[in-house]
Amino acid sequence: MALTEVFTGAHGTLTLANEDTPEGKDAQAVIETWEIQTVGRLNDVEVRVDTALKEFYEVGRRHPVSLSPGDIAISGVVGRAYVNGALLVLLMGRGSAPTAIAEPYVQPSFIMTLRLNDPAHPGNTISLELGGVKFQNWHYTLPEDDFVVEDLRFKALTIRAIDREGGDETGGGEATPTAAGFETA
After folding, report:
1. Among 28, 21, 35, residue whose Cα is nearest residue 84
2. CATH top-level class for 8-169?
């Protein structure tokens, strides 16, 4: 499906990344202790991908003759995260334990999945999957007579777009992802 329709933000999920890394091993300890892998629902998410394009100018030219891609940086903000259980444990890992733990200790990493729905075609969705997500900081407001509001900034290692067209519109299943046929070298 071409990205020519209007999409609405359906929901986002935050899942502990169970990988073969020190971060993944600590995530697995959290998963086994509390028997939960999806630790939050996300709302008001902003994702930013910067490619650090660099212009190359030749002497005597006012416009660049080429654009060279630079480093890719993926970052963003989560305006509200409904998180199951102690967010500080998820944010700082072993560093939030009540007993002293020798440094260095790893910071848990997450997988963030943001799902976009096409209201005109309910079977069509696009999911953005961010991998290697780590929270840079956490801020919350504790109002007297209202819900706790959280604000988190994050950085990620990877981003993928998973495009699904069609599928069961009754909610019984998801369509197979659509992929572009890029040539391989």
Report:
1. 35
2. mainly beta
